[in-house]
Write a structure and sequence with these properties.
single chain; elongated; four-stranded antiparallel sheet; eight-stranded mixed sheet; 10 helices; 2 domains; about 35% helix; Alpha-Beta Plaits; Aminopeptidase; alpha/beta
């Protein structure tokens, strides 16, 4: 048994697929998404939905309905700086890729917009649509907040969703703590360069950086309890350009992810202490710079419980499961600090014998049947949430 929105979403699947593939073939990065935002704006205007594009960060905001209460549906639309290897016939060719499914997210919100527009007179309040930029750099949500996206009208609740490439279509994942906080950092190590034949005349920044790397791993192994959820990753290490030169500098970049504010604060302090002390032990100097600092995505319990029941009403075959608790991070967290929020996962397993790849993998594919699921789910949540508060 399916509700009206699921049936209507299925009837516009051709448009959903077309929108998705256009966005997928034209990925853009960060806060500057001129082509993507222009495309979104044009499609909304075709639907008769007025919207506004931010000149500062390319996000698009639209509004539907009338009334005192307002719920916001949010989807991100920025891509990643990686060459696509999916083999899809509509793969991007500009060196960037929607490897995290943001093309799917933006399309789902466009689909929900069309569905809700068709029933605008029935809505018991207002639905604000936010097509957000800059999620991958953890700047888009806060930038939108700074521009007043939660005001005029005031947003009373916010909903967002993420496509899950390893979760079957028809599956919807939820949890009260779906995504962890992330602290991104850079460590610049300074030494003294010299010829490889005279190491005693220099200070190897590379050597100091290697020992910093090893010491940081011990923070997880030896300084927090085994039951504490924390992941510390060094994803970039650069030093030296010639095989006979001891380098004067080195750079390490990494992330710390955890759900506990106390664990985060402790490890953030220790990262700096360890980097500086280890560098000094090898006669070098280390400076730690904050690259990003995003809190954990924490769902409002009452809203989440309500959303779970609404999701079940979209399609009786949906598997709505308490399985969403991941060490990934999301800048939707900046909204969860401001208003009651719920962040869910939507199954988009490609299937058809294609290997399962996670998000951020250049070979990942997403099942376009999930576009119907997402559009109908977004529209139903907005409609039902407003109806219960009429």
């Amino acid at each position: 048994m399916v509700n009206k929105y699921f049936g209507e979403a299925a009837s516009i699947k051709g448009d959903l697929v077309s929108w998705r593939r256009h966005i997928h073939q034209n990925p853009e990065l960060g806060l500057d998404l001129p082509e993507t935002s222009a495309f979104i704006k044009a499609e909304l205007e075709k639907m008769g939905i007025p919207c506004k594009v931010s000149e500062k960060n390319s996000h698009v905001v639209a509004l539907l309905g009338k009334g005192d209460k307002c719920i916001m549906l949010r989807s991100d639309m920025d891509a990643l700086p990686m060459a696509e290897e999916s083999g899809e016939e509509f793969a991007s060719t500009n060196g960037c890729m929607h490897a995290c499914g943001h093309d799917m997210h933006a399309t789902v919100l466009l689909g929900a917009a069309r569905l809700l527009k068709a029933h605008e007179d029935e809505l018991k309040g207002q639905v604000k649509l936010l097509f957000q930029s800059g999620e991958e750099v953890f700047k888009g949500a806060q930038s939108a907040i700074d521009e007043g996206v939660l005001e005029d009208p005031k947003v009373d609740a916010a909903i967002s969703a993420h496509m899950a490439s390893a979760f079957p279509v028809g599956g919807i994942g939820w949890g009260y703590f779906p995504m962890s906080a992330v602290y991104g950092f850079r460590i610049d190590v300074a030494g003294k360069g010299t010829h490889g034949s005279t190491p005693e005349k220099g200070v190897s920044a590379m050597n100091a950086a290697v020992h910093i790397y090893l010491a940081l791993q011990e923070l997880i192994a030896r300084e927090i309890t085994a039951s504490t959820e924390a992941a510390l990753t060094i994803g970039r290490f650069e030093s030296g350009k010639a095989n006979n030169v001891i380098p004067a500098s080195a750079v390490l970049e990494g992330t710390l992810r955890t759900f506990s504010p106390e664990t985060r604060d402790f490890l953030v302090a220790r990262i700096t202490e360890v980097a500086e002390a280890v560098a000094k032990a090898y006669r070098a100097e280390a400076a730690v710079t904050v690259v990003s600092d995003c809190p954990a995505t924490i769902n409002d319990k009452a809203l989440t419980d309500e959303v779970v029941e609404i999701c079940k009403s979209v399609n009786s075959d949906f598997q709505v499961l308490d399985v969403y608790h991941a060490m990934g991070s999301e800048d939707f967290a900046f909204f969860t600090d401001k208003v009651p929020c719920c962040y869910i996962g939507i199954g988009a397993l490609y299937g058809n014998g294609y290997p399962v790849y996670s998000e951020h993998n250049p070979k990942v594919r997403f099942n376009e049947d999930a576009l119907v699921v997402g559009s109908a789910t977004y529209a139903t949540i907005a409609d039902e949430w407003l109806s219960k508060r009429a």
